[in-house]
Specification:
The chain contains six helices and no strands. With 122 residues, the protein is mostly helical.
Length: 122
């Protein structure tokens, strides 16, 4: 069966594969502190990210709506957090996985702090 794939969808897929080229060649910093954060709802977990990703609350709501009956014994918030990470956003350079991956690659540990609740949730 042939599936029609739009240009933007192809661009999103290419972005995901080419994003790996940005990986540093040396071992990055150890991530610590997020595991001590409270386990909160997805809505609360994305609040600190609104200044970086203004549309994140809209996408989080959409992800949660699509995850009303998650499989694999995941909670609705767990399933929606995973979906939120993998969703294609417009513009694509402002999607969650691009921003999170940039923060994870950064040598500045303060760039990860706003992500701690989401990382704990995820």
């Amino acid at each position: 069966m042939a599936v029609s794939v739009g240009k933007e969808s192809i661009n999103q897929r290419v972005l995901r594969f080419t994003d790996v080229a940005k990986e540093p060649h040396e071992i990055g910093m150890h991530i610590s502190g997020y595991e001590k954060m409270p386990l909160v709802s997805l809505e609360q977990a994305v609040e600190p990210l609104v200044s970086q990703l203004p549309a994140i609350e809209t996408y989080a709501h959409a992800a949660k709506e699509k995850c009303k009956k998650p499989a694999d014994n995941l909670t609705r918030d767990e399933s929606a957090a995973i979906m939120l990470y993998s969703m294609a956003w417009q513009p694509s350079n402002q999607c969650l996985y691009v921003a999170l991956n940039a923060a994870l690659r950064s040598t500045d540990p303060t760039r990860l702090k706003p992500w701690f609740l989401y990382l704990r949730r995820h």
